[in-house]
Amino acid sequence: MPEANCLKVPKSLGENVIRLVRDLNIFNNKLKVQQVNNHLCIPLTTKPSFEAYKTIENTLQDFEISIYNFPEREKDRFTHIDLLADKLPPSLLARVPRAIDFIGDIAIIEIPPELKEHKKEIGEALLKTHKKTSTVMAKSGPIKGIFRLRAFEVIAGTKKTTTDYTEYGSVFHVDVAKTFFSPRLATERNRVALRVKTGETIIDMFAGVGPFAIPIAKKCKNVKVYAIDLNPNAISLLKRNIAANRVEKQVIPIQGDARQIVKDKLAGTADRVIMNLPETAIEYVDVACEALKTKGGIIHYYSFVNTSDKLETAKVRLTEEVNRNNRKIKKILLAKTVREVASYTWQVVVDSQIQ
C-alpha cells in the first residue's frame, strides 16, 4: 500500500475535516480514508505548508500529522459530468457546474444561461451520482433584501426547501428559501467556536439559524450567547436548533434589529461580538463597540472586499470605525481570506482585540 502524509482526527469530525483539506488543496483523492479505532486517517497529497498547518491548527483542537500506508481507491464512480457526456456537446459540457453546495440532502448549483434548457438533465444526473441527495436546486436570482435571501428553483427530486444539516457534531434545521445559510463557512465557524473561553458572554449580532452560536455553546458549556436576528423565520428555526442541540441554558434567541437590541438590553455586556453580515457589517461597528464590556473584548468582523490588498483594506476600514466610536484596536489577532464569493470579490475576517 502506498505511503502518504496523513491527517489523523476524531471520527466525528471526519466529513468537515475532509472539506477543510479539500479547501486547502491537499486532499489525496487517489487513496482511501481509513478508520483507526475512533479516529480517521485522511490521506494528503503533501505535508501541509506553514500556512495550511496554521489553518488546521486554528480549526482543530485534536489532530495529528504523520505518515500512513493507505490503500488505493478503486476507479472513481461516475460523476454527473460523466452521465451528461453523451447528452451535451463538448462546448456545453465544459460549462456544467462542478461547484455544488450540499446542505443536508439538498444540492444547490448555479446554472449558466446557456445551460438553462438542460437544467433538468443536470439535476437528474446529480441525483443519480449523489445517492444521499433528494433535492437539486438551481439558483435563480442574487442574494437580496434585508434577510439576505435568494430565489431557488427545484430542478430535480423532491420539491422542498427544508433539510437537516450536520456540521462538526451540531445539527441544524434549515429552510434555504426563508433563511440565509452557507455550508462553505463550516471551517470558519468551527475556528471561532474554538477561540471562545469559558465564562464568556458572546453576542452574535446576525445569528441566522445558529451556526455560530450553537457550536460555541456545545464546545464551551459555561458561556452565554445572545443570538440576534431580524428574520422571524431564522429565529423560529434557531429556537428549534437550540432545543435539538440541548443548549437552552446557554443560547438566548432574540428577534429584532441588533442595533436596537444592544442599545436597549445588551450594552456593555459582551466579551466577544460576532459580525457575520459582510455586506453591511461596517455600518454596525459602532453597535459592536457599544456591546463590548468597558474593559474591551474581541470582535470577529466579516466583510466583502474586491481590491488587490484585500486584507489591508478590511483592517483599515475597521480601525477607522472603531476609532470613531471612542474605542481602539489593541491588537489585530488575525486577518485572513475566508472564501472567494465572485470574480475579484472575497469574504474576509478580521479578529481584533478592542480596548
Task: Identify low-pLDDT runs.
Answer: none
What's the alpha carbon Rg, rounded to whole Å? Answer: 21 Å
Specify the helix fraction band. 25-40%
Strands side by side in the biggest sheet: 13-12-11-14-15-17-16
Number of spatially distinct domains: 3
CATH superfamily of the largest domain: Vaccinia Virus protein VP39
Protein model, in words:
The mean pLDDT is 93. It is built from 11 helices and 17 strands. It is α/β, with parallel strands linked by helices and 355 residues long.
Q: What attributes characterize this protein structure?
A:
355 residues; alpha/beta; Alpha-Beta Plaits; Rossmann fold; seven-stranded mixed beta sheet; 30% strand
Q: Would you kindly provide a brief summary of this structure?
A:
By secondary structure, the chain is α/β, with parallel strands linked by helices.
List the helices and strands and how they pair.
Blueprint: E1 3-10, H1 14-23, E2 34-36, E3 39-44, H2 50-59, E4 64-69, H3 80-84, H4 90-93, E5 101-103, E6 106-109, H5 119-129, E7 135-139, E8 152-157, E9 162-167, E10 170-175, H6 186-195, E11 201-204, H7 213-219, E12 224-229, H8 232-244, E13 251-255, H9 258-266, E14 272-275, H10 285-291, E15 297-305, H11 310-324, E16 329-342, E17 345-354
Parallel strand pairs: 6-7, 11-12, 11-14, 12-13, 14-15
Antiparallel strand pairs: 1-3, 1-4, 2-3, 5-6, 7-8, 9-10, 15-17, 16-17
Helix pairs in contact: 6-7, 9-10
